[in-house]
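Technical note accompanying the year-one report. For the benefit of new consortium partners, we illustrate the data format agreed upon in the data management plan: each record pairs a sequence with a structure-token string. No post-processing was applied to the example shown here.
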Amino acid sequence: MKKFLFIFIVSISFSGAYACSICGCGGSNFYMGLLPNFNNKFIGIRYHYAQFHTQLANDLTQFSNNYYNTMEVWGGWNINKKWQVLAFVPYYYNKQADDDGISYKSGLGDITLMANYQLFHSKSMNKANKNVEQEFWIGGGVKLPTGPFKVNPNDSSTTLADINAQIGTGSTDFLLNAQYNVRIGFFGVSNSLNYKISTNNSAQYKFGNKLTANSIAFYRFRTKGIAIMPNAGIMYEHTDMNLLNKSKVQYTGSYAVSALAGVEFSFNKIAVGISVQAPFAEEFASGQTKFQFSGLAHISFAL
């Protein structure tokens, strides 16, 4: 962890972890967060929580509260100064409490593999004698259909809630991302642009493509041998409508603008971090679904 690797990759829609009753969020919401500081390799465990509330506009007795919990093994490897690979293996435990009662669904989700390439990296000194460091990375990856998708969307009795409750999307999806990062002294800003390209699964159901853009500022300092990095920023997410047999699925597609805040700690070969995400502008299912809160915590180890 002697080298500070400030790469920021956010919300690449890896799996069906978060699904609200009617909004079509299944397969469309995943917040990755900041990578831990590491020199060569790392491995860790993360816990992610998200909460949605749905209430039908034409029948207020029809409601749903959805709680999504993810335990994930993640890791990264700097192969050399230019290349980095990452892997994510999630396990989901989801709860839905609605007017019909309480239900649970759990299982292994869709595994994601990624690679990033550093286009440029520069270091200089400004007029205030502060170090200025810049990086620009591009990358991509693949989301594998390892999680279960066990419904038939062509069956007239299948609801959107049934589809969104699936742990996996049943499709192989492709990920593209770019990050520009700048650090001046102890202060820095990371800017990220990500795009997920979905494909049809075997049932000819396609979750919407997703665009995510964010900017996050951080300040890194040391005290008593511990590196501390508070951070805060903003994120925009837009998800296209889902398709069934190439036709748009009603009440799918969404956008959200969220505030982000968190703090990272590192000491010796251990990194610990927490962050929260709260929306201040959103549109899910014509306003019938609300994204309420999301939180992330991790512990990671440099190898």
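Partners are asked to follow this layout when depositing records. Residues 41-302 form a domain with the Lipocalin fold (CATH 2.40.128.130).
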